[in-house]
Amino acid sequence: MKKLLLTLSCLAFVQLVLAQKLDKMHWFNEPEKWDIKNNALSMFVTPQTDYWRISHYGFTVDDAPFYYGTYGGEFEVKVKITGNYKARFDQMGLMLRIDQQNYIKAGIEFVDGKYNLSTVVTHKTSDWSVIKLEKPAPFVWIKAVRRLDAVEVFYSFDDKEYTMMRNAYLQDNTPVMVGMMAASPDGKGFDAQFEHFSVKHLPDARRLKWLEDNADQ
Question: Domain 2-202, what fold?
């Protein structure tokens, strides 16, 4: 019984630490309705908001909800996303952001009644790539790995087998705002939930190489 109580206490402590970590993050464009419960972020996405710069459409917008922490160096970030998508371009997922002109957002985007794995990469101007899903997915895991000057973006339906959806440039040796974003450019908003958000530090590959090369000095 004591072991069981100790195990439960440890689990409760871990959940508390994770919840506190989520609570300590920051809003950029805070939505009117949001909540954190059981280490999950829920929000009603602000209507007619988005992140996009110039290309194809000729406008720049930077006004969608984004809940983030700031990280330097190399890392892996992932999250489980579930959305009640309703209107064209309703979207949610991860965002890695240096500033208004340099960011990557990746997740699910609802277009013409279809669910798409979507990535937007912005360096002064935005580009957009999609992978259409054959059928709606109740949830998707999105993962991004930042190594040196590149970010690899992956998706998964079970948090076990991941498939790459994009490899994109992101400036090296620069702090990055990392977190969860959602937007409803053409709609009236929707309910979005983010679960199991985590960021794992990855040792700097160049430092490890230097240490290996200079081990005997």
Answer: Jelly Rolls (2.60.120)
